[in-house]
Every structure is written in C-alpha cells, then in structure tokens.
Amino acid sequence: MLGRWDGECFALDELHRFWNGPLEQGGHMYWDARRLWQEIQAGLAAYTASHHAPLAGIGIDTWAVDYGLLDAHGNLLGNPYHYRDQRTVGLPALVDAQIPPEELYGRTGIQRLPLNTLYQLAAAAQSRDPQLAAAETLLLMPDLFHFWLTGERGAEYTNATTTMFLDARERRWAADLLDRLAIPSRVLPPLVEPGSVIGPLLPAVGNTVGLRYHVPVIAVGTHDTASAVAAIPGLDEGSAYISSGTWSLVGVELAQPLLSAEARRFNVTNEGGVAGSIRCLKNVAGLWLVQECQRLWQEAGLAYSWAELVALAEAAPPLRSLVDPDATEFTAPADMPAALSAYCRRTGQPEPAGVGELVRCCLESLALKYRHVIEGLERLTGRIITTVRVVGGGSQNSLLCQLTADACGRTVIAGPAEGTALGNILVQAIATGHLPDLATGRQALAASVQQASFAPRPSADWDEASRRMAQLMQA
Description:
The chain is of the alpha+beta class and 475 residues long. It has two domains: 2-218, Nucleotidyltransferase, domain 5 (2-Layer Sandwich), CATH 3.30.420.40; 225-475, 2-Layer Sandwich (Nucleotidyltransferase, domain 5), CATH 3.30.420.40. Helix content is 41%, strand content 16%. It contains 19 helices and 20 strands. Strands 16-17-15-14-18-19-20 form a seven-stranded mixed sheet, with helices on both faces. The longest helix has 27 residues, at 355-381. It is globular. The model has no long low-confidence stretch (mean pLDDT 97).
C-alpha cells in the first residue's frame, strides 16, 4: 500500500495484492516466508515502475506470535510455524506445571491462548527441535522482514508484547520465564520502540527493486492490530474498538496494563500500542468462521461473493441458532459448515439450513460475543462504553455492524476499512516529522476517511440471545 500525506489528509493506493495462506507438510502448518519476501519486493518494484518521487519511508506490519529462527550467519533455519499448527495442543497445561498461571499473567498480562509464542517455543523445546538448538536469533514475522530489508535484528515492542514473555510493567523481556522452560533466552533480540527508524534499506535490496536512494525502514506498530488501533478516529474513554477481520480484537485503549486477578479470570490481554498506550482486549475468532465456509463452498463450485453471502444472511430468520465462535472445534476444522452444524446439533439447537442461515448464525454469534467482551471490559475498567468503533475489513460488512449495534445496545461507527495500512502510514508520518503526534494524526484521519454510523434497534430478543450465548460459553 502506498500512503500519501498532503498536509491535510491521508490517501492510500494499492500497489500489489497477493495470497497468503499456510503450507502443509509432514502434518504441520507453516508460513511460506521466502515467498512472502518475494511479494514484498514485488510491491516495492511496483512502486518504482509507476512513480518517480522518492519514498519517505517503508513500514511493515503483520500478524502476531509467529517467528522465524536465524543461525549465526543470518540464515533462516526453516519456514516459520503457523499459529494454527497443532503442536501446541496441551502445552498450556505443561507450562502451568513450571510457571503458575497467576504468576505468568501477573508478569505478562497476556491472554491465555495455545497459539502464544511462549507455548510454541515450549513445544519446540519439548520436542528438542534442532532448529531451536541451532538458533542465534528469534525474529517475529515483521522483524524477520525488517532484517531482510535492513540487515538489523530487533523486536518491535507492540508485537513483542504478544509473545507472553515480555514484562508488561517493565516493558522488557522476561527472559527468566524462558529459562524456566529450558528455552534459550539468548535468542531474544533487543527491543525497538514503534516510531523508531530501524535503518536504511540495504543497497542490494534497493537495486533489486529499483530504489537506488536512501530509504528509511521504520518500526511502526508492527502488530497489525496496533497499527489499526492507531488509526481509529475519535477513540476515547467512552469507546471500545473492534479490529474486525479473520480475528476480531475487541478492546479499549489504556495508559497502563490491567494485571488483576479479575482481569486474568476474564482472560483479557494487555498488548502494547503506539505512543506508550496499552491495547486491553480479547481475541475473538472473527470472520474466520465465514471465510472458511466461503472457501469450502468455492471448492464445491459455489463461488459466493461477500455481498451475496450478506444478502442471503439478511434474508434468513434471526437468532435461530448460535455458536461460541471460540469453541475449539472451530480452530482449524476440515469442514467449517459441517462443524457449525454439528455444534448446533450437539447443543440442542436447530441446524442451520442452507448458506444464509449458516452465515447469519456466524454473524449473530460474533455480535453477541462482542457484547460479552464489552460488558466485561466495562466491569474491569469502570468505564461506561457508549460507542463501538469498528475498523478493518469487517467494517464494510453492514449487516455485521448493524447486528453488533443491536446486540450491544450501543452506536457502532464503522471505518476505516484499511485501518491497519493507515495506522502504519500514520506512524511513519510521525517518525519522519510530517506530523507531531498520534492525536493530531487521528484528527487528520477523521478528515481523510468515510465512516458509517449504525444506531442500535432495542429488542428483548437480544437479551434472551445473550443469555443463550452465556450458557453456550459456560458449557
């Protein structure tokens, strides 16, 4: 994505789009890191082929928790594991035996999820993975691409917080946690703050892509959600946010992490944000459920567009069947539609009949899960949340936005859809001196993007559905 700042507004242009999915080999799931690196270079080359103005900066953001391992010569030892790989099954309980959950949460403040980097490394140590033994440096995914762009090794703070071994209060690696799990803490690189210049683009890379001048590579909020939250206009103490995509990240922006026993029981996570903020949130499964259904239908020759799926869902009967989006059977099923039907059957609900009912089941369930999280965040923070601000691809789904307003009983403000890219560009603009601070940048974004408002339509049916959802979650 190419970002422009004209002194008043931001604008985005898409330069290069490519598919990103897992590789499956030997019963495990991986990321094709070298192909992604080729695609990044193709995107930079697309800029030089069509534009002559020098770039002011380059920023990388990706998903969280996954990592690559480098040897002493800087060679990638193997493709990074995908966070949905099953090697971490049972690892949280194994870690509990070495580090009490209360202590782990009190130090790191991170939501207990089997995909966390700590559990991935514990799995590697337990299996005596030779790559871990040979590694000199661990780099999270954006930091790996930073290394290939600049030759510099580091760990940007917002993504580092998601690992479950960064001290939330002291903002430094909690290396002793790794030592207690026989994970070599020597692999941890130095931390880098968002908004820092990592280094110039390597001449060899510049020559390959046609950028034959000095270009700084900037550490943005490299966790995509950190960039997305940075790009939310109007985010204040009366607002919750939902970064809506494959995952839904539902949270509030704080100055300090919440590390209480109540926060741990609610399984809220405290991830680093830009400008010293904390993203206090919960991960919800998100549009993954519908995306997987869409993929299966496409393989069967039913190529439904998103607009068609939403239209079919709008025509389906409301609040007929519900699922807990975070139930384990939806993590990586071979057949998502079948998994959804089986869940409804197992819980004594009508099985969704047809595409529209399946999609509506997913969207209504997500809206109700958002309500549960937002109510919990109100209890934890003592805030009164009146507005839900939705960014990311899911903000374009008008049905989901309206269902969220109805389920939560709060106004939903949707947009920008490209929040992550805009937040990335915004932090670069601050780092290069084009803007003074985050607050000014958010004001500029408000003038740069279109947003839609959805007012709640009160109904007792949603209160009853919320009780049903609570029972499903309890079960």
